[in-house]
Every structure is written in C-alpha cells, then in structure tokens.
C-alpha cells in the first residue's frame, strides 16, 4: 500500500511525539508498505520506503481545507492517516483519523486564544462542523483512550465499531545528573486554560515549581513568583532527569484524552498528583494521587504532605512499560491500516 501521514506537527510536543514515535516504529517493523509523510519543516526519512513532501500549510488554516486535500489527492494514496482533529474534509480518498481529546468542545473560552473574540468563536464553530463531517467520513477512528472514545460516541453519535482504542506508549530513558538543585514539583505541558495552571500556582505556596513547555503567549500570561522556574522545552534525556528527581509531577488538568507526561513520570518513579478525571483513572489506576481540580485546598494539602504520596514501585514501572508500548501502538495501527 501507499500510505500517507500528515506530519506537519512532527516537531511539536504532544501530537508531535505521537507522530515521531509512530513513524520510528513503523520504519522498523513494516517491511512492505510505502509511506509519504507531509511535513512543513525539514525532516529526514527513516529509510528508502519513506518519502517526504514539503507542504507550507499551517494547521488551523483555511488552506488546510482548500489546498491540502488537493496535495494529498495528487499522491494517489491507498490510505491517509490524519493524526490530529483538523481533518481536511474535502479530501476524496480513504482516511483514518487519530483523536486525542475533545478539549475544543468543552473549553471554548476566549482565554484559549490569541484571536479577537468574534474570530475565535467563528473558528470554534468551524472546528465543530469539520469534526462532525470529518469523523463521519473517516474510514476509521483511532482513540487514544476509552475515555475519549466514550466522548466521541456521545458527542457525534458514532458507531462504536468505527472507533478503536490504541494507547500511546512510553519509554524509560536514562536519567542525567540532577538539573534543579532545590526540591521541586514538576509540570510538563502547555499552558492552555484547560490545563488549569492557575489552580496549581495558587496552591504551590513557597514550594519550587518547575514548568516544562514551549514559552508561548499562554505561558507568558501566567502570574509567576520567584519560586516558579520556567525550564522551557526539554529533550527526552532532560525530561528523564526532571521526572526522576522531582518530588512529584503535578497534572491539574480539567480534561485530558490520555495524559502522556503522567505516564512518563510514573515509569521514571515519580509520584503523580493529578486531577480526578476519567483519562487519568484509566491510565494510572491506583498510582494516581487524585484531587478535585476545582479545589485549591485539596491540591495544596497534597503539595505540603509529599511523604503521604503513593510512589510507583519498580514493578509498577515495568508493568506500565509492558502495557503502554510505542512498538505495540505502531503494530496495532499497522493492522488497522491493512484492515480498512
């Protein structure tokens, strides 16, 4: 088969990590299919069965719906994989889509934008319409969790047989020397409103908090004190060190589809303080130290009593590594490619 992958987000965090690991594992395990990866930046194909097509089309743009379908169609693909919710609905070929969450439907707030409010609300309505059309047109949908799968069925009246749950994976990287001298709590991710960082900043008190992520407008909006350290983006090796030496990872989100940083922290032995939401319960089970994400005092209590936090054992870490494997994720995705 000739399979296309929309890889324009390949160098981003979050979805970018999903795309990078999917391609890395498929490149090692799939010996018969050929792949075209559509990227916006320079990227080296992993072997001779992989090609790139440079496309200078930003995500969340009109061109994504008008020009991108034409570019995809030129390649005469047997199957196209869209790994993000902005589905090019005018593409005439067969495609599957990976849905990571439905945050855009639950938190359509003006705080979550750099745009003027009228334009932002127009985009929210457009996203909803694109999702409605695209999800029903898709040959199949990959959901990264059962929690997201239930959301998809509830919001879009989709047949459960059309949605497969394929978990993301995790790796245990070698930890470098300690990067932060003081004891610290850790947050990894962006600063979008649904991440609920305002609650964390109100609860942190005099404890040191290390924020890891891309410094964009949302991070710049946060009120910070001297005990809040903005680390910026981190390599896998730096993340391993930050996870390993953290007092705990704190994940106060109001909604998540999977929550990869929590899983990564767990396999590096860090306690997880996280909001009591379905995705975290599904992925972490009894390993989470849960709190109501609307209750600052509940979070504050966990932060001032780190000795009471549950911590993943070596056995817990090994079980998570077996259950959540990028190789397994790519294998299940490849079988889906061949089935649809």
From TrEMBL:
Statement: the UniProt record of this protein carries the keyword Cytoplasm: no
Q: Which residues form the Glycosyltransferase subfamily 4-like N-terminal domain?
A: 14-170
User: Its GO biological process terms?
Assistant: lipopolysaccharide biosynthetic process
Report a single Gene Ontology molecular function: glycosyltransferase activity
Which keywords belong to this entry? Transferase
Short name of one Pfam family: Glycos_transf_1
Q: What organism does this protein naturally occur in?
A: Candidatus Gottesmanbacteria bacterium RIFCSPHIGHO2_01_FULL_46_14
* Lineage top rank: taxon: Bacteria
Q: What is this protein called?
A: Glycosyl transferase family 1 domain-containing protein
Q: Where is the Glycosyl transferase family domain?
A: 176-303
């Amino acid at each position: 088969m000739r399979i296309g992958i929309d890889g324009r987000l390949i160098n981003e965090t979050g979805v970018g990590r999903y795309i990078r690991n999917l391609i890395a594992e498929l490149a090692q395990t799939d010996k018969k299919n050929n792949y075209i990866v559509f990227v916006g930046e320079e990227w080296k194909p992993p072997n001779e069965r992989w090609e790139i097509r440079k496309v200078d089309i930003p995500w969340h743009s009109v061109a994504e719906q008008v020009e991108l379908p034409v570019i995809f169609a030129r390649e005469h693909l047997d199957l196209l994989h869209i790994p993000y919710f902005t589905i090019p609905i005018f593409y005439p070929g067969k495609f599957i889509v990976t849905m990571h969450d439905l945050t855009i439907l639950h938190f359509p707030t003006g705080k979550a934008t750099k745009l003027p409010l009228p334009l932002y609300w127009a985009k929210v309505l457009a996203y909803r319409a694109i999702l409605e059309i695209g999800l029903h047109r898709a040959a199949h949908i990959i959901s990264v969790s059962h929690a997201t799968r239930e959301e998809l069925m509830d919001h879009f009246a989709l047949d459960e047989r059309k949605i497969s749950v394929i978990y993301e994976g995790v790796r245990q990287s070698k930890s470098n020397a300690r990067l932060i001298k003081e004891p610290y709590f850790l947050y990894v991710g962006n600063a979008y409103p649904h991440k609920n960082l305002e609650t964390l900043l109100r609860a942190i008190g005099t404890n040191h908090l290390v924020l890891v992520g891309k410094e964009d407008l949302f991070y710049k909006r946060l009120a910070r004190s001297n005990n809040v350290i903005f680390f910026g983006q981190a390599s896998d090796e730096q993340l391993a060190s930050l996870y390993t030496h953290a007092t705990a990872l704190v994940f106060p989100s109001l909604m998540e589809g999977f929550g990869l940083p929590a899983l990564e922290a767990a396999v590096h032995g860090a306690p997880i303080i996280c909001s009591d939401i379905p995705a975290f319960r599904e992925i972490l089970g009894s390993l989470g130290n849960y709190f109501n994400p609307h209750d600052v005092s509940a979070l504050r209590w966990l932060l001032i009593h780190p000795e009471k936090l549950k911590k993943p054992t070596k056995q817990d870490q090994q079980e998570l590594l077996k259950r959540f494997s990028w190789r397994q994720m790519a294998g299940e995705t490849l079988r889906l490619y061949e089935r649809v």
